[in-house]
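Task: complex structure prediction.
Instruction: return structure tokens for all chains below.
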Amino acid sequence: MRYEIRVDGHMSDILAEAFPELERVVMSGQTVLFGSVIDEAQLFGLLARCQSLGLHVVEMRRMPD
Amino acid sequence: MVVSAVVTGDSNTTAPAGDRVDPLGDPFLRTRFAVPSRPATFLPRRRLTQHLQEGLQTPLTMVNGSAGAGKTLLVADWTASLDRPVAWLTVEAEEQRPGTFWAYFLQALSTCGTPLSDRVHCPVDPSRVSHKVLSEIAEDLVGRDPAPVVVLDEFDRVSASEVAEQLEFVLQHAGSGLRLVLVTRNEPMFSLHRYRAAGTLTEIRDAELALNPEEAAALLELHGLTLPADAVRSLVERTRGWAAGLRLCALAAQESPDPETYLKEFEADHSTVADFLLAEVLRRQPPQTQDLLLRVSVLDRFCPDLVNGLTHRTDAGLILAELHRDNAFVEQLGQGWYRLHPLFGEILQTHLRVRHPGLEPDLHRSAAQWMRRRGALPEALAHGAAAADWGFTAAAVVDDLAIGQFFTGLRSDDLNELFSRMGPEATGPAPELVRAARDLAHSDLDHGVAHLHHAEAWLSVDEDDPATTQLSWAFLEAVAARLTGSPARAEQAAETADEVRQEVPPHLLDKHPELSALLLTHLGSTRLWAGRYEDARAALSEAADCPGGILTVLPREESMGHLALIDYLNGWPGRAEDQALAAMTETERFSLPQPSGSGIGRLVLAAVAVDRHELGRAQALLDEADELDLDTHDPVKAAGRAIATARLHLARGNARAAMESASPALATTVASPWADSLEQLVTSTVHLAEGRSETAAEVLQHLPEDQPTWTVEAAHIQLAAGRPGAAIDLLDSVPADSRPGPAVTVRAALVRAQVAQMAGDTETARRFVAQALILARRERLRRPFLDAGRWIRPLLAAAPLRSLAAEWLLPGPVPGNGPPPAVGPRPAPIVVQELSERERDVLQRLAQMMSTQEIAVDLYLSVNTVKTHLKSLYRKLGVNRRSEAVHRARDMRLL
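Output:
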């Protein structure tokens, strides 16, 4: 499963280290984290991580493989 | 990883709650129950406290907002002005487990000065809480006025729906006696729609928590910043009124030479708010403060001394006090303890990893050592494991004498999980002992014994090993001895333990009463296996009398179960039953889920039920015991199960099945006389049943001669095989001073009766049968009469025996006109066994016409337990119905 998570704002390089399993692009004031996700457990884990880092999730979607 | 870092530094941090400890055996830690204090720059928000105040009308209030929304401090501020008790509990990840959660819940109430009554039991198993405890809690809260407010902060850490369901149950049944406030980042697994529909929920969510421009202006002003209204408004827009964001803005701007321009720049910037601002604020701290903040991010909570240890400084106290005063990073918990704001803690940890890669394990190691010095074992273990320093972590367990906790089930899950990560590279006596303990706790005998050998090799190399290491080794030796049925090894282990115990610091022995209790149980179990009943009884009684409350409940239960088995083997079914019930009550008292415990008590009860010809009940008890996942590697339990099962099969006339179940596959060092005897008796019975009386007699030759229990059964078989002479010889060989129990004497009397009957001496036969009836009636021993054969039926059916057998052995009352002569309408029991305290309780309620259900509720027992008490009550009173029981008890002035 490949997912992308879009969060508000530009993420610093340091904070991006909190998501070592995902890649990152910055576009129009938002950061898109994307990559393969093993299962739902990891997906919810990623969301929880966003929450505990104070990130504002704007969109999350599954990408075609 | 963040590891809880609370310690029992001094007696002040231990809550004054009598001897109530959490299921992990640690003293409760006050910082968990501390209401975080508000910093000087805290902005009181009336509209929200007002809403919370109105929330007191509803049983449930939920403050639900993102990290950094200002939830915790808001609720803390509101509770400060409440004129009713407020129990505060900051939930930690380990409170996922229901048992632990409820133990902390109870302690939170007790810490705030509204303890529940002593009748409410503290859960003892970290992973479970019984329904009974929840009912007790709810019932105790009912009608409290004013109702205590229980705040559960960081409730999002509880992801287990079980805990949420249990909370809902308690909340519902406590009525107006409890006000629950959940502070959480996400919606709890409550059926919130129902609360909403019923109007019993007060919700404060992100939108309401967000600061409006006026509040934002006030907050900035507290930080010494005065901004024009539109500047404030655009800041609120940029941060969405997010409290943490605004606070960071203020802090960053404060340090800037031109705050207003700085904030303009921030508005235009596109960075994520917390990330950007935190980096800014951190950058403006002096280097040593930055370093300190990064280092403490591995700790959940910290005090100056711990921080000094982690940062190699001496002035952490000053820096922490300053940080708490000046910014939002550090929250104060009281008594010198602090924590990082959770949001910043997470971000700081990421910074730590980037700036100092590889430092994290070192920090955990330092923290582990500090915890170890302060005697905070669970925290030391958690940090040691996080540092992957297994030599240290294993040594911490062994030095603390906590090795028994792999077995008692109290901390066992945690310990096993923790050490499952230990790789093979860790060497030394402590890691080997820990490996042996893990394997033995899972009955992996081969690996366990191998690790025990490795440990022994280490011990023999280094003579200076601390006494705790040697005692831990001796303890594990006793476990291995028990599982291998090796009395010599057990005695050796016990001797070694006695020798080194003198050198172990007494406070460690006091801290871990479970170690001695377990060791005695293993010793007793091994002695019992070897047939040394009296020696076994000595060790087991000592174990059963061990102090230590919940820490020793499992070894105590197991010892009492073993004692019950000894009574049974000696032919005292009534005593065995009482002892087994006492063992089971022991686990129920501590609200272990039912059924629970070692299962040995149930096996004994099943065997007793067979003797009473209550076959359905025997089967049910065996099924219950099997549900407990009985350890089939344990020789005594396996043999105990074989006895009950084989006897049940025999009673059902299923000789072949009996033979199969009579010999469990066990590889023990020594044979067990009683387990072997049982096997021989069953084999002999099968031969007899299949017409091979010669072979049957042959098998009996191997029975030990000094056990009246087996001798009497052998006599019965000899007689059935047509050798009355041999039967009588066997009976005469029983020494008069051996004082066997009724299960033996009843059978002996019946054998003599049958011999007399065969010789044509009906009068003597009748006398012996009468003797057997009198002995058996009190114990309701029906099986020996059913086994006796057809000859006994005419004797029992006729007077005078008929009246002795009526109602308990033969159905229905005595026939005929009018009362039978001499005996009276209902023969009173010859002797009444003393009623236990619980049985008296039940009896008194019976007399008040209470139902079984009502009695169960009233006595805080399960319905099944009440039924069990009723059964033994009936037996002791020699009656079959509750009305008779009350009558009989009145007659006997028991009521």
